[in-house]
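Our preliminary data section would be incomplete without showing what the modeling component actually yields. Below, a chain of 289 amino acids is followed by its predicted structure, encoded as tokens that our downstream tools consume directly.
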Amino acid sequence: MSSRLAGKVAFITGAARGQGRAHAVRMAEEGADIIAVDICEQIKSNKYPLATQQDLDETTKLVTELGAGIVAVKADVRERDQLREAVEAGIAQFGRLDIVVANAGILPMALGDPHASDFVDSTDVDLVGVMNAVAVAIAHLGDGGSIIVTGSTAGMMPGTTSNPVMGPGGAGYSWSKKTLIGYVEEMSVHLAPRFIRVNAIHPTNVNTHLMHNDGMYGIFRPDLEHPTREDVEPAFTHFQAMPIPYIEPVDVANLAVFLASDEARYITGQQIRVDAGALVKFPNGPTSL
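Predicted structure:
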């Protein structure tokens, strides 16, 4: 532990597991206290299971064991009032706010049974949820703070999550992640006078539930009736220039720690990929999915 975030407080959405938990743990390792929120409920259109209260409790345990403080709140990023209450509870406990990690996201895939509402659910979480998290935090962020948005390398490519086979939910995910690029750049300009940085991290495939589910396996191996993890890993590996099937959540969190630290004090408005070379390999989209 190098205490790069000592004395700072981080507000993290989608913190119960996956990338969000990795952000909470890594930032706690570096000395930050954590305000952690997650929906801890299922969204009907999202076919793979979302995080539970037990998952959020586990994040709380991991952060606490590191000696950091944590305020963990069950909250839906689609509901701005719920996020506002969570931030206010954290500030009441810790007295400040320095970092926002707008991470919560879903990828509904109603394969064979598409609904326009899947697009709505996806954009409500992946785009509006990010904007809600930033909106409730801005007034409380100290000068020199850091806002970090989770984007997607796949969302930057044509023919991936925007592929019609992914349905309206995939289209909503892709549109949201692309729209966040402009949002980050706009917000970075408007918050620059306060030295608040706004940056986006765009991961490739990440070893989380969003990647490991039957729907995603079927997308990558449509030639098989019931593909397994072992069946899809060669196809996952094809997606990156480096020969790996996916990165780990901590690989994303390591970059977030840097962007949240004073080492990145003049880095803002950036779109930074942690993608093992996926976009440079397929700048016009993958040859097959």
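The mean pLDDT is 95. Strands lie at 9-13, 33-38, 70-74, 97-102, 141-150, 197-203, 271-274. Preliminary results of this kind motivate Aim 1 of the renewal.
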